[in-house]
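SAMPLE LOG
Freezer: B-3
Tube label: C17
Construct: single chain, 643 aa
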Amino acid sequence: MVKSPFKVLDAYGREDKDIFFGRDKEIQALYSKTTESNLILLYGASGTGKTSLIHCGLSSRFGEDEWLPLFVRRKDDIASSTVEEINKYLPRRLKGNTPLPLAIKALHLAHFRPIYLIFDQFEEIFISGTIEEQRHFFGFLELMLQSEIKCKIILVIREEYLAYLSEYEEQVPSLFDHRLRIERMRPHHAKEVILRSALAFGIQMVAPSQTADMMTDLLSFDNEIELTYLQVYLDRLYTEGYEREKSLPVTFSPELVAEVSDIDDVLGDFLEAQVQNVMRVLPHSEQEHIWDILQQLITEEGTRTSLSIQTLLQNLEKFQISRPIIDFCIEELRQARLLHILDGRIELAHDSLAAKVYEKISAEDRLRAMVLAVIKDGMTRYQRLGVLMDKKDLEYIAPHLEDLRLDKTELALIERSRKRLRRLRNWQNASVASFIVVLLALLGWASVERYKAVERGLALEKEKIDAQEKAKKQEEISRRLDEYLGLFLAKEKEVEMRQKEVSSSLDSIKKIETRLKNALDSAEIMRRRAERSNQEALEAKQQAEVEKERATQLQRVSKANELAARALLEAERKPFYAIRVAEAAYKLDANTNTENALINIFQQEYFSRYRDRKRPIAVQVRSFLQANFAPQLTPQQRRELGI
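STRUCTURE (predicted):
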């Protein structure tokens, strides 16, 4: 079967720049962002082509020596993966636990080129990473933005995980300042991709505009087209077109599009078809293991994850699949463009495939995945807030614990949560008994307090009568004080008026002083301006003289070159006249052109008669002219030449 030229689920790279269409506007916007900030946030839904935009679109805007791009995927830990990527460009490898700022500095000293740290699929740090890993990374991000090293950082993340970044916005305030959202492709851009791809791949198009419109109508949803679906559909159309004609070039026509129009789930159909192709060559008892292998490459939430080959083999031990079958399935799935294998790690070819694989998982496996998700959420809450799992979560996961393979930290969390729940129950039982005892004690205490309250009421009544008498005495004293206070206020008002008069006089004096000071300051400013104007005038005069001298020199050089050229033109016809004109040019400006003109004329006309083998040509020319073997220019000739 012929292989189609379309990328299908693979991302475009720098080498694909001539076949990467429909994203010119986004490429320019991203390139502009790199000039505005050292931190760029690139986000969008799965299937919008974020990775291709970086690896192909942005890469094509830089020359080899203009940037040093490091494409980083988290793998098992984002810091060690970054150091691993840096080591590819260093003559001496760094240790895996080298602090990232030191590793970046070492890279900068080794290359002295702008470094671009591109963290692709950055959502993996929130899906699979720990809180500690996230804190360390954003601490590194904060340090790099304050560093003098020329290092730009691009975070590429699916938009549904964008909210996870807000927790670190206080630590990195510019996190959202320079962001770019990549949207799904509009039908008119998808049409451009179809038509230009057909031209690039030598595909014949019958009624090109109509055929392309039919394709975009099939793939469009809410006036948007997912690039993954477009590539898979074009691949399918190419295969079907070849099967119809059994020859190249393949032809796309309205009839072919109408025939291949059952695309309700084009990606799911592609996955199913490729898996079925692999199953056909497996023993019947081994066929379902294909889905067991694919299931290991998605998370409990149905997203793509990257595993080392060793980890994948360990996870598959419970299915009792032989190693040759595993190796065969992996290689076949890779050939079918469903898997990527790089640097000893394996993953699904695209995020969109993860959702389709997740749909194929059995109800029992989904339940197990949901239980694992509850445990993971509990682990995250405990790491972030120190909160243990509650009774509801423990009861939900209890029936499934024996079927799960949990690590030591997860088992420890469950046991610690159970112990806390038991202590809470014991405490509740003890609290009920204590409540009854306390209630009886409170009844006895209430009777005693009631008697005391009656006695306090009588005492308060007596105190009220005494207070009324004291209030009358205080009222009389207050009246007398008011009289004395009135006299005091009158005197105080008179003193205040005198103080205002004095203050007004002082203010007038201060205003006069301020005006005098301002006048002196203005005079000083005018004096300095005059000095600066004189200095600027002097500098301008000097500059004018320099420019005048320069212009005179340029005129002299120009005239000398003009005379030298004229002398060379007249040499054959008027040799005596020509050599004197060349002499005049040399006197105006002794440069290489005028000297060469003299030498050339002498060699051409006089060298055979006046040569002296013991002396340089230039010396012979000067001697020849000083001896007046050639007649001097007449005043009329000098006027004609303008000298």
